[in-house]
Write a structure and sequence with these properties.
single chain; Quinone Oxidoreductase, Chain A, domain 1; Rossmann fold; 7-stranded mixed sheet; 6-stranded parallel sheet; 27% helix; binds NADPH dihydro-nicotinamide-adenine-dinucleotide phosphate; binds the ligand CCCCCC(=O)/C=C/[C@H]1[C@H](O)CC(=O)[C@@H]1CCCCCCC(=O)O; 15-oxoprostaglandin 13-reductase [NAD(P)+] activity; fatty acid metabolism; prostaglandin metabolism
Amino acid sequence: MVRAQTWILAKHFNGFPKESDFQLKEEELPEPKAGEVLLEALFLSVDPYMRPFSRVRMKEGDVMIGTQVAKVVQSRNAAFPVGAHVVSRGGWRTHTVSDGSDLVPVMPDWPRDVSLSLALGTVGMPGLTALYGIEEVLELKSGETLLVNAAAGAVGSVAGQMAKMKGCRVVGSAGSDAKVAFLKELGFDEAFNYKTVASLEEALKKAAPDGYDCFFENVGGPFSSVAMSQMKDFGRIAVCGSISTYNDTEVQTGPYPQMTMIVKQLKMEGFMQSRWEPKHPESLRRLMGWLKEGKLQSREHITKGFENMPAAFMGMLRGENTGKAIVEV
Ligand SMILES: NC(=O)C1=CN([C@@H]2O[C@H](COP(=O)(O)OP(=O)(O)OC[C@H]3O[C@@H](n4cnc5c(N)ncnc54)[C@H](OP(=O)(O)O)[C@@H]3O)[C@@H](O)[C@H]2O)C=CC1
Ligand SMILES: CCCCCC(=O)/C=C/[C@H]1[C@H](O)CC(=O)[C@@H]1CCCCCCC(=O)O
C-alpha cells in the first residue's frame, strides 16, 4: 500500500487564489491491477491554465488538474516498465495508479545531461505551444518584427528565441527589470518592463517605430488593445493566452477590437498546441536539438516540495517565475 498526497480544490475562489482554497489530502492507493502502473511524481508543472480551468471545469473536492513527470515504480503494463519516465496528466498528486491511457513516455533517448523537468517546459507543452504559435499560426518570416508579452515565461521565452532564429526583430515585455535583462541575454532586440514604463503605447512605439508584423499574445486585457493599435496593416496575431484576465471577478469589456482589425485588416487566431498533436514527436526532437546546439536557452523557476504546490501556483500568477515554473517533489 502506498500513501499518496493530493492537493484538491477546497473551494471555488473568486479573484486571486489563496492557500485556504486548496487542501492537502492523503489517501491509500490500491496495488496496480493487471494493465496498470504505479507512478511516483518527480516534477510537477505549474501552469496558468489551472486558474481558469479550476473555475470552469472543476468541482470542489476534485484533485487539481496538472501534468507531471513521473517514474514508474510498479508495473503490470509491459508498455511502461519499472524505471520508465512518463508525462502524466495525473494532477497535483505524489503517486498515481494509471492504466497507461493518459501517459506519454518521455522522448526516447532523452539526454542524461538534460533535466527531465524540461519535458514540462522547453521540451514539453510550453515549448510546443511556442513552436506552433510561431510556425503554424503566425507563419513568421525572416525580417518581420514580432511582439511577445509575458516574454520571460515558459512559452514567451521560447517564442522569442525561435523568432530570433528565423531572423526576425523581436520585442518583449515582462514584469521586472531582472526579466528584461534576461530577455536581452536571450537575444531579444528590445525589451521593457510593462509595470514601470510611463506609457505602454510609447514603449511599444519606441521599440518598433514602424509597427509590428506579428504579435504573440499571452496577456490579453488592456495590453492587447494597446498592442493591436500598433500592428502594421495585414498584421497577424496568435492568441495563446490571456493571463491578465484569469483572476478577474467580472468579465472585462471593451475597448472592442473590431474597428482596429477592419482598418488594419488584421488576422487574429486563437490556438492550443493539441491541434498539432501528430507533429509532437518531431517538434519535440527539434526543440531538444536547438537546446543541445545552444540555440535555445532554457530557464526554470523551481520550488522544492510537493507541499508548496499552492504557493508555487500563486507565485507564478504573481510573476515570481522567470522561465518555466516547476515544483520538484
Ligand atoms: N494556448 C495554449 O495552448 C497555451 C497557452 N498558454 C498561455 O500562455 C501564457 C503564458 O503561459 P506560460 O508561459 O506557461 O506562463 P509563464 O511562465 O509566462 O508565467 C506566467 C507569467 O505571466 C505573467 N503575468 C501574470 N499576471 C499578469 C498580468 N496581470 N499581466 C501581464 N502578465 C502577467 C507573469 O510574468 P510578468 O512578470 O512578466 O508579469 C508570470 O510570470 C498564458 O496566458 C497561458 O495561459 C500556455 C500554454 C499553452
Ligand atoms: C482554460 C483556459 C485556457 C487558457 C489558455 C491556456 O493556457 C491553454 C492551455 C492548454 C494547453 O494547450 C494544454 C492544456 O491542457 C491547456 C488547457 C486546456 C483547457 C481546455 C478547456 C476546454 C474546455 O473544456 O472548454
